[in-house]
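Dear colleagues,

For the upcoming journal club I promised to circulate an example of a predicted protein-ligand complex. I picked one with NDP because it came up in last month's discussion. The inputs are reproduced below in full, followed by the predicted structure.
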Amino acid sequence: MGQFKNFIGGEWVEGEAVIRNINPSDITDLVGEYAAAGAAQTKAAIEAAAAAFPAWSMTTPQQRFDILDAAGSEILARKEELGRLLAREEGKPLADGIGEATRAGHIFKFFAGEAVRIEGTALASIRPGIDINVMREPMGVVGLITPWNFPIAIPAWKMAPALAFGNTVVLKPAELVPGSAYAIVEILSRAGLPKGVVNLVMGKGSIVGQAMLDSPHVNAVSFTGSTGTGARVAEACVKRGAKFQLEMGGKNPALVLDDADLSVAVNACLNSAFFQTGQRCTASSRIIVTKGVHDAFVEQMVAAMKTLKVDNALEPGCQVGPVVDARQLAQDEKYIDIGRKEGAELAWGGERLNRATDGFFLQPALFVNTKNDMQINREEIFGPVATVIKVDSYEEGLAIANDTAFGLSAGVYTTSLKHAAHFRRNAKAGMVMVNLPTAGVDYHVPFGGTKGSSYGAREQGRQAVEFFTTTKTQYSFAG
Ligand code: NDP
């Protein structure tokens, strides 16, 4: 098997080291060997992007449309193959992998359209005879740093708007899952992009990511990942005046009220707490339940959890794949241990599972009798571990839902219009769901949170233009 190389200045380049991409469902399965870049290669990629920017920024919207649309078409045509690659390298069930690849194709097509729809504003001046135009211009070289849990969707939702609005790109995917990002860059490399417009540098965050943060030629950094790394990105960008946006963790509440349709609530909580192994920033990790329905809810959740098929991501019927790697598995187990020591009661799950292949399988776990001030309710676990917090009333539930350092997504399960409307207005989160899982969003609307979950302009949808462009205010006097 040959090495999958970095893409720098339009050339495929050997790395300075090798990343072994291992299937978490079957650790004997090597997905591929990928090139790890060092600081010098990262610098070369940034220089290539800087050199390509003047010409690329002057391309017509139609040229950018054609390239993004072609890339989107190829991704959609190959969605099964790309979804399978994703399922192998990250451990998402195959159907979810194909769904994510499909989403990436749709994202490229959406932003192809955005390239031609870019708007400016014409205003009258407060002074006579003067016209004002407020126009958007690209930022320049943008650095994109992505996490392991959405290996194709997140690189897509950062690269597509960056390119649509005329920026050049240096992408650093998570070292754990370089394969899906490699595949879309390979597709882009044949879609008509001039050399240097897109560059791929795989490798370690502490080397490649840091080199991007420190480079004076990277004008903007779009980051998705953990809160700790996000803080480092912010610090480095503030120091040198670069623009940045951060999408980080969550501790998303799901509030189940006495008047909920219980089957709707149980299905939504099961999905958002445990599907994709709970490794979604929008996963429900705190399930807050009013006392009238608490016992019935827990009983039905546990019954539903017992039927979940946890298995190799490629196995037909798999609903929950493996944890992504040994380090994340150790983190999940550490928090299960912490929960027990804090006095929470494990209603179900939390055990390691053996399957036909050697992978990181964990039985989804539900803690009951928990308090919101427990560590398991304060810190993001990022695995298939959820808690139940019993409350007396809607008001108490809302207060607990909002009592967190995070604010990405929040859900309420109720048949009361009054409570649904109140929650939509008063939940302190960037995305609010009524009778729907907290995870699972559309690609054509803004995505992002409040408080410790996000910083800067929103990603996705029409709002993506805010981050990937800057405005120029043009005054003209016709005489
Ligand atoms: P990390 O913060 O560990 O990594 C994210 C990216 O940052 C990776 O590419 C990583 O590289 C890179 N990185 C690490 N250190 C540095 C550094 N010093 N300088 C620059 N880049 C660096 O997050 P995970 O990959 O573990 O992803 C999980 C986290 O992402 C969770 O907290 C989750 O909530 C969050 N997330 C948030 C989303 C949102 O939109 N709000 C969506 C998806 C995930 P490498 O891995 O190669 O070391």
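Two points we might discuss: Residues 145-150, 172, 174-176, 204-206, 209-210, 213, 224-226, 229, 232, 247-250, 281, 380, 382, 408, 453 surround NDP (CB under 6 Å). The radius of gyration is 23 Å.

See you all on Thursday,
B. R.
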